[in-house]
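Got a spare moment? Tell me how you read both lines of this record:
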Amino acid sequence: MRVTILAHEQFPGRAKTAQGILRYADYDVVAVLDRDRAGERVSAHIPDVQDAPIVAGMDDVDQPVDALVIGIAPIGGGFEESWRPDVRTALERGCDVISGLHFFLEDDEEFVELAAEHGGDLWDVRKPHDELTVSEGVAADVSADVVCTVGTDCSVGKMTASMELVEAAREAGHDAAVIPTGQTGIVVEGWGNPIDRVVSDFTAGAVEEMIVEKGDDHDLLVVEGQGSIVHPAYSAVTCGILHGSMADKLVLCHDAEREVIHGYESFELPPIPTYVDLYESLAAPVREADVVAGMLNTAGLDGDDDARDAIATFEDELGGAATDPIRFSAEEILEAIV
């Protein structure tokens, strides 16, 4: 499928959905829309993903396109009215529009009418299906080993760690699959449950449903984590995923430069050993699971030597193996898991 990705004024740093699509999705990215970087190319900012031109808007895309993907998700998941002309243009060209926002395109009268008139589809990735219910506590019964990525904060690389672990596992001959729980993972994989949009009572059940669906068809499942257990806004989502997955092992993800909670800067991050104790203690009443390894996002560090130093420090604090799977490789972490 040929797509454009909307990332106005946020590419690349705050456009993690866009980055995830460029790195992992089986899409041909025709262009990235960002008014602030029009005339540049993706490769100037992220050299190790598929390249594409950056343009100011859909009107500047002169190639055939199948879909427009909204590749940014601001805190609260609202829709910026400045994006409307690009969505309108995409629909008028017969494109589908894919959105991971909490704002549903299907609730916007103009978008619904344009989609119907021009033959496009609206996919609200964060819209859960209607049959979700409470957990039955049976995720541990599947034959696959279940690993859950957990984080010190939101936006530290849990989705990336999950994708890289599964890729490394497949290359090593394991039958592995991602369990997508957030908008980026769902767009990349084409299925999943948007856990941060599920009724609170059904959160663990929504994760369990996916584990049960895939657990006897694969050897290894990697559950895409969300938020952080210490996050003042998102901790409930984190707990639901942890208990619903009934994971066998945990991988702790952290940003090497992060010292405070993103968007809640008055809250400092606790020490790494505190996270290990918190996650293991919280998991234990449902299913004991150890933090066996770590993934460190070193994108903000200048060179490999600085990254290796940061990883070594993280390993000491964690008490286990760690790496940056993008800068280096996830193979060592896979060994710690399997």
User: Anything to note?
Assistant: The longest helix spans residues 304-318. The chain has two domains: 2-124, 139-337. The domain at 139-337 is CATH 3.40.50.300 (Rossmann fold).
